[in-house]
Specification:
With 324 residues, the protein is α/β, with parallel strands linked by helices. The chain contains 13 helices and 9 strands.
Amino acid sequence: MEQSFPRPRVLISRCLGFAACRYNGQQLQSRVVEQLRDHVDFVDVCPEIEAGLGVPRSPIRLCLQDNAIKVWQPAESRNVTAVLQKAAVDLAQDITNHDGAILKTKSPSCALQDAKIYNGIDNPQFLQRGSGIFGALVLERLGHKAVEDEQRLSNRLLREHFLIKLFAWTRFRAIKIAPRMADLVAYHAGHKLLFLAYNQRRFRLCGKITANHERLPPEEVFLCYEQELGQILQKPFLSKSMINTLYHALGWISEDLSAREKRFIINTIEEYRDERIPLQVVTRLIEAQAIRFNHGYLLGQVLLQPFPPRLNDLSDSGRGREVK
């Protein structure tokens, strides 16, 4: 049965399906963005429009000049660093209350890690890749949450990790509005199996924080928990850890299963280990058994439905399970 899900607040580059605001007057379409529209609240931004560069506009580039990044518009022989930086700062003022971001890859303004940076303004040579002017601020203020560029989200495993993070942070934001220890305890308990698959050590630290033996005010406890949550979800889970967690989940219902049923689920988990099926096949199978036996503990675990099932998409541009 499909659970109810909170609506994440997601910052997004405006050119990704919201307006024809690219330098050449075009608008891009992203399959992931289109799938998300019914499930999230998008906040679309365009730093270059905010900076008054117009549409269409001559392309800009990032150049290292005098040990500082300058934003240069070659066709206009114009330095637009100041106006773009001001626009970026203005747009980044209130983004800490967002749950994630999807930004345009390779953009001098929005890129998270792959914008081209040139050495010098006159006769420039390619130097390295790095963050765009706005992308750097997003990483600084929102990087511990669900932040990705639209191209990497075409990889199924990165997309899965992004969605897990996004909805985990959205649930946390919902209880942080009016911090109550009972809500944090319930949040921690419901995410137990999921967080164990991500980082057992950090999960146990969160458990100590939630226990609050020092009797700190709820606001302080939530702040400490939030810091650890960012560490738990920093990297995608390892398949080995997830497999151990799946067997742990199976253990809760194994006594109720026939030998044939148990063997079938074990074989399914092993198929996941061999990368022949996606994670959702296994979790939905375990969920079906939890429903069958009305197992309240398992049915309350976010692991079984960490994000809306309608967002499951088996298409994948990448290979291999372990991604960064």
